[in-house]
User: What shape does this take?
Amino acid sequence: MEHVIECQNLTHYYGDKLVLNNLNLKVERGRIFGILGKNGMGKTTTINILMGFLRPSSGKCLVLGEESHKLSPATRQKIGLLHEGHLAYDFMTIRQVEKFYSAFFPNWKPDYYWDLIGKLGLSDSHKIKNMSCGQRSQVVLGLIFAQDPELLILDDYSMGLDPGYRALFIDYLQEYVREKNKTVFLTSHIIQDVEKVVDDTIIMGHQKLLLNMPLATLKKNFHRYEFRNAEAVRHLKIDDDFITNLEFVNNKVTIYSFKPLREIKAYLNAVKLEHEDLQEISMSLEEAFIGLTGKY
Amino acid sequence: MLKAILYKEWIKLRWAVIVIAGLSLLTLAYSIGMINYYIEFQGALNNWLYVIGKSLLLRNIVFVKYLPLITGLTFGLLQFVQEMSRNRMRLSYHLPISEKKLLLSSVGIGYAFLLAEIVFLFFGLWLVVAVNYPAEIVQKALLSMIPWFLGGSAVYFLTSFIILEPSWIYRIIYGIVSAGLTSLYFQASTYDQYRTLWTFVLIVLLIPLTILFAGHRFRRGTK
Amino acid sequence: MLNKLSRYVIILLIVFVAALYLPDFFSMLFDKKVNTPRLDYSAVIDDFVYTIYGGMGQVEYRDIKGNSYNEREYFALLPFMYYATLEKWQQLPPSLKGIELSSRNIRENTQVFRIQAKDIDFPYVPLYLMFEAEPDYAQLMIPEDLFRLGNKIEFIDPNSNSVIAEKSERFQSALLDAGFRFPAKIIAGNPTNRKPFDEGYFISDANGAVFHLKMIHDQPVCIKTGIDPKLNIRQIFVSENLRREFYGWFVTHDNKVFLITYDDYKVRELPTRTKEGIYDYIADEMTYRFYTYPINRHVYISGDGFVKMIVTDNDFNPIAEHVETWTPYDRRSASVIKQFLFPFELNTNTPTNFVKLQLDHFGWKGLAGIAASLLALVLFSRKRSWTDYVLVLLTGVFGLIGVLLIKDEE
Assistant: This one.
């Protein structure tokens, strides 16, 4: 299987502060890959490295076969970037920005752009500076689509968008990507959106990767269990094998784990903890995310 | 692609290009008025003696002295502040063109506009001065303006360089160096005082090369 | 590769600016004023005398034998300089060595000039004024035209900004008739009407021959002087003085000074060489002063760290010379430290009025600062490319500042 993105032992320091510790990840062609993580876990650092705006302290990151911090112009042509905050040349108008970008891309597909723009109902001479965040996101997306890249890297596309535009963005993205077999790497902090589009995900924790698997696998294999036992505080603790995360509220115990109910029961028996009312509580992806990363 | 970059820089600069051209015209008009006023009130001969002995032309065309400097500063700010604000420069650095080519052509295009303004001003003044004064005065007055034009060019490149640099500490260092360099070009108090002018030209020619390092630092994500 | 080069260009600019401003700033902070003695020659005691200005406004008056004087005594030793004050104090004696000491006599028989580097080479606009040497009025009148003199002579009318053909031709023929070979090399005159009379211009031609051109009753008068072109004149100065002893003076390329006398343009060499040799006049670095008084003539040659005085009698026969020295700037502590600290300095100010980039290197002394800079780089900085070391080796502290401030990005 060909990998569009492949990071090996990616490590990065800001001064003496370690922010990425031996991160490994691979993104397969044709997949939509989401990277999740709480703030400060190296999400931005990773995407900066992928986009080619940060050279990692060690390790390497290959994007379309080239090291990301020295992508050749030919390779950059095949990568569409959406920068945090939907960066655009604010000083240009709708028409000017299309004219400008079209000169750089031989496969330029103006129809994609004008289709999206047409729905905004703005005049061609409308300046990007004077648009709402949502309108601007459509312009930026239109430019990326028209560029017809093999790989799309979208940094926090949902930032500043109201629910309508967010849904619109997701709809267009999904349609475009599925139809044309594009590869997408995205970050977002709106997990419901991610749930709708993402095939694979990694979740980043403090200086380590918490998880790297297809989303479907996560939803199927990650569980939440609850029971009541005031003693539990003294007997249970987080380990990498059985208990991914733990919460105690009064005498209620919540366990997050990749193990099925049967094995959890066996485990609790082994540590001699009463768990008569043990039961699995279903969760949304957002709850699973919080379960994995902790609330704090 | 070069055409597209020209298009973008033109969008950023066009109003400034027009406004500065207008200011140049005003400067020329002021110079004509000023010269005629002095000739009227001093008499032609006395005016000539004054122009020769007291460097009247030099002292009274202060607008010419600082117009290239203001132009350089304005063009540099207009071209690169909006590129650097909110990291917008990332858009440009991701374009499928080498970053060196991109930077040097952006700066080259901006400088071409600056040079056009300077040439316009230079020939305008040539006309204005040549109507009223003999070749000797014309030559000296025009030679005296060359350091100012070089200074304006230096300011343009230095401004671009400082803005394109991603770190504030470096910007401050560069700012100090720039002040030191720029002041070199504004030391004259009389006509044609500069000797070994080529050394001053050489310095101006070196400055655009510094921009590559600023771009490189941006790409590396240096803070 | 280009990024590396770009970094070095930035460092080079830092070195350049640092070399331009830091050494000056350093001297400004640490250099102290040196009180230089003011040397004179008294025709009363026939010996050198001097004043020293101490701090706090104190002034000491001495002669070189060590005798002290008070102010009044000292002034009396120098009647040609202080005659007005002496007269007010009623202490001006009626005569000295048979010469009448009246204000008027002293004033009329005194003439002074000074030559500095900036008088020899300076920016100028090559247009000149030709006065009517024998005007119908009590004073000289500013003419109504200017002239240029290069490959030919042309008078220009400012009102029309055009050449006055007829007058130009007259002067052109006058010059050619006198044997003038264009183009003109040196054109010296005194374009002011605040002078008692006009002597026009002294002009050296393509062969180095000197011509005297003036205008009498609107007609050109051009005389070829007998001044030897081999003297290799660098600059001529004209000064109309009622004593009418000399038209002016000139400096040669080999640092000699001559007067052009009214005695058929015969030249008279003034003293420029001294017994010690080390205080010989160098036009680009020193100031030359000439004073002629009713008794004796004084020549001062002054530079950094010394003033040399040569006295001749009225017939230019040397009678005495004396030098006063003090620590020159180069050997003062601020400057010495500067030379050890920095390998070189850049300047744009010249002794003339030009702006010019000049590099002064401090030779072996600068090695101290270079060595210290290299050591600092080795000790306090992480490993670097060899080019950084080479740069510091060549530029010392300046380069050190540059490579430390601007980090290598590789």
Q: What stands out?
A: The domain at 3-217 of chain A is CATH 3.40.50.300 (Rossmann fold). The longest strand of chain A covers residues 3-14.
